[in-house]
TrEMBL record:
Record's protein name: Cof-type HAD-IIB family hydrolase
GO MF annotation list: hydrolase activity
Enzyme Commission number: 3.1.3.-
Keyword field: Hydrolase
Enzyme class, spelled out: hydrolase
Keyword Hydrolase listed: yes
Keyword Secreted in record: no
Organism: Paenibacillus filicis
Length: 273
């Protein structure tokens, strides 16, 4: 198969557990790019913390951010497509988070806002290269594309139970577990898979010409949409079962191994024929 587009999740996939890119992975992606394939980062991060990863790879181009709620072009960044919602639709959720001391932030296409944060939360933002802006009341904001809740795995397991029982989201929104410590609320129309489908169509790229690699539940529809969907070995079993195959973990250069197998090795063999 002649693949034309590589869609890559960032945290837990492209980056190791220390949020670092390995030199082996960087070199492999550069070789894939030089071979003419498009590299698209597809992440729950916003542009401010995703673009530095793209720049470290040495690339410019399009990124799918906020779990599909915003597609942006770098340099710029220029917002190409976004799906937002009024913050008042999440009033009950915000009130619950305030009352139960669940940290949350609110994102526009390009910026992230918080009402307050302790040192642990600020340390989390620093790890993800984020400088949050402070507002008194997120409920008066406009241009929202995502609300994210952050906490321990146990706290967010409880939040998943609360959403849909004690708290009912509007039928235009949905929640998605984007990491052990994160739950995102975005438009029902927003997902990595939907954004990838729209982007690939605009470039005239068919699903069977796409490889998508991810490691968590927010990657599922992207993995299913692509002609070849690959799960990292550090993925939950549900994600592995949805994928066409599994590669090594994010701490073992799994992205490198997958692209070597499915892109670089076939290209080398073709050239040697």
């Amino acid at each position: 198969m002649n693949y034309r587009l590589i869609a890559l999740d960032v945290d837990g996939t492209l980056l190791d557990d220390h949020h670092q890119l390995s030199e082996k992975t960087i070199q492999t992606l550069r070789e894939v790019h030089q071979a003419g394939l498009r590299i698209v980062l597809c992440t729950g991060r916003g542009p401010g913390s995703a673009i530095p990863v793209l720049e470290e790879l040495g690339f410019e181009g399009v990124l799918i951010t906020h779990n599909g709620a915003s597609t942006v072009q770098s340099p710029g960044p220029e917002v190409l497509h976004t799906i937002g919602f009024p913050m008042r639709e999440l009033e009950q959720l915000v009130l619950y988070c305030r009352e139960n001391h669940i940290h949350f932030d609110v994102n526009t296409s390009l910026e992230l806002f918080i009402e307050k944060a302790d040192d642990e939360v600020l340390g989390m933002y620093e790890r993800f290269l984020i400088t949050p802006k402070r507002v008194e009341d997120v409920l008066v904001m406009d241009g929202t594309v995502k609300l994210t809740m952050f906490g321990t795995g146990e706290q967010l397991d409880r939040m998943q139970q609360v959403i849909g029982t004690e708290l009912i989201l509007p039928d235009t929104l949905h929640s998605i577990r984007s990491g052990v410590e994160f739950i995102d609320v975005i438009s029902l129309a927003s997902s990595k898979g939907n954004a990838l489908k729209q982007l690939a169509s605009s470039w005239g790229i068919k699903p069977d010409e796409i490889i998508a690699i991810g490691n968590y539940y927010n990657d599922l529809d992207m993995i299913r949409f692509a002609g070849l969907g690959i799960a990292m070995d550090n993925s939950p079993d549900d994600v592995k079962e949805a994928a066409d195959e599994t590669t090594l973990s994010n701490n073992e250069d799994g992205v490198h191994e997958a692209l070597l197998k499915h892109v670089l090795a076939p290209l080398t063999a073709k050239r040697n024929q």
